[in-house]
Amino acid sequence: MDERKVAIVGAGQVGATFAFALMISGLATRIVLIDLSPERAEGHVMDLNHGLSFVKPSTIYVGDYSDCKDANIVVVTAGAGQKPGETRLDLVRRNTDIFKDIVPKIVRYEPRILIIVSNPVDVLTYATLRLSEYPMSRVIGSGTVLDTARFRYLLGSHCGVDPRNVHAYIVGEHGDSEVAVWSQVNIGGVAFRRYCQVCERECSEGEREEVFNKVKNAAYEVIKKKGATNFAIGLALVRIVESILRDENSVLTVSTLVNDYYDISDVCLSIPAIVNRNGISKTLSIGLEESEVEKLQASANVLKEVINSIEI
Ligand code: NAD
Fold first, then answer.
1. Which tens digit of pLDDT belongs to each residue from 5-60?
2. Buried b (16+ CB within 10 A) or exposed e, 186-212
3. Structural domain of residue 95, as residue ranges?
4. Chain segment 74-104, per-residue pLDDT in tens
5. 166: which strand partners?
6. Does 161 share its domain with 302?
7. The pLDDT value given to residue 81
8. Could you tell me if 74 and 218 lie in one domain?
9. Does 12 sit in the ligand 1 pocket, CB within 6 Å?
10. Mean pLDDT per segment of 10 residues, for the chain of length 312 residues?
């Protein structure tokens, strides 16, 4: 196994932007792009290679599934994206069929860790676990890593604080039923409720809801304006990959199979988890308020219904 080889299956908007961000990060020494359209993958590979004199050395090339052999990580971004107005769950049938085809082709070559990005990401992470028969630690959904970043950015700009000092999670589905864990938000170590008491702005409950709605509807807004989301998800993927390749034990809200978590079992959804070279090493049991537990359970039920509707 090559510790620093990353294969990307699906060289569309997300796959290509992730490849670009990964190349700049210098984390990977070999990046291989695999796509249904070798022509598109070839175009991206040429373009990326033309920039190699500006970054740390890496080998970037077009491959096929056999190139998943000895990859430390395979990132799957293949499949249809949302059209304006479409929900992530609308994509389920089309992308499940694609996954039934590609997951066996990937795991035949026994790469170590799979990161699932295609939507609906929680359902496809669950499907990948079943199709691959990999242990749950080695199948990671990008989940709400992106939504959590949006939450930190939007809350930070609302409060006038660097998003890196805003500690906040979005959990549950990466989609319409996702949950903001307001009870655990802290700004620079100060609990959010206390922070608000001493802040001169005196925001209303409605403003708080508005921040969350902007997080939840961010993808719809971006897709309406430019057809796809690609930059922030590209960076979110680099963050997950970094945590694995550098064995960081970072806490990230990735999608994982949960069992007996606030009475939720046998569904993939996002909760804070520790990610290191082995994948997901453990999930954190965060203290949720009763209303947050109810929302998380409702989110799990939405996902379960979809999972039960697909044949895997
Ligand atoms: P895109 O249409 O630009 O790219 C998809 C790529 O997949 C295309 O290049 C296509 O040729 C390829 N593909 C399709 N079927 C394939 C197959 N059977 N084998 C190999 N390649 C195949 O779409 P995009 O904007 O890059 O989005 C990709 C996926 O990522 C979508 O499902 C989208 O909803 C999802 N997404 C997820 C997140 C997240 O946070 N999880 C964020 C953004 C997008």
1. 999 999 999 999 999 999 999 999 999 999 999 999 999 999 999 999 999 999 99
2. ebeeeebeebbeeeeeeeeeeebeebb
3. 5-141
4. 999 999 888 888 888 888 999 999 999 999 9
5. 187
6. yes
7. 81
8. no
9. yes
10. 95 98 98 98 98 98 98 97 84 94 98 98 98 98 98 96 97 98 96 90 89 97 96 98 98 97 98 98 96 98 95 83
d(CA 300, CA 269): 7
Tell me how far CA of residue 222 lies from CA of 17, 23, 225, in angstroms. 16, 25, 5
Report the distance separating Cα 14 and Cα 118, nearest Å.
9
Ligand 1 atom with least separation from CA of 15: 26
Q: Atom 30 in ligand 1: which residue has the minimum CA distance?
A: 118
Q: Are 75 and 6 in contact (CB under 8 A)?
A: yes
115 CB under 6 A from ligand 1? no
User: Do 186 and 294 fall into the same domain?
Assistant: yes
Is residue 74 lining ligand 1, measured as CB closer than 6 Å?
no
How much distance in Å is there from the Cα of 89 to the middle of ligand 1?
A: 14
Residue-level pLDDT at 62: 98
The CATH number for 248's domain is: 3.90.110.10
Query: Cβ neighbours of residue 73 under 8 Å, at least 6 residues apart?
Result: 5, 6, 7, 111, 112, 113, 114, 115, 241, 244, 245
Q: Does residue 189 share a domain with residue 116? A: no
Residues 92 and 232 in one domain: no
Q: Which of 87, 109, 141 is the last residue of a domain?
A: 141
E strand or H helix that includes residue 107: helix 92-107
Task: Decide if 168 contacts 181 (C-beta within 8 A).
Answer: yes
Can you tell me the distance from the alpha carbon of 228 to that of 277, in angstroms, rounded to the nearest whole number? 31
Decide: 253 and 143 in contact? Cβ < 8 Å. yes
- Is the CB of residue 229 below 6 angstroms from any atom belonging to ligand 1? yes
Say if residue 283 is in the same domain as residue 188.
Answer: yes
Do 211 and 184 share a structural domain?
A: yes
Catalytic residues: 174
If you take atom 41 of ligand 1, which residue's CA is the nearest one?
A: 117
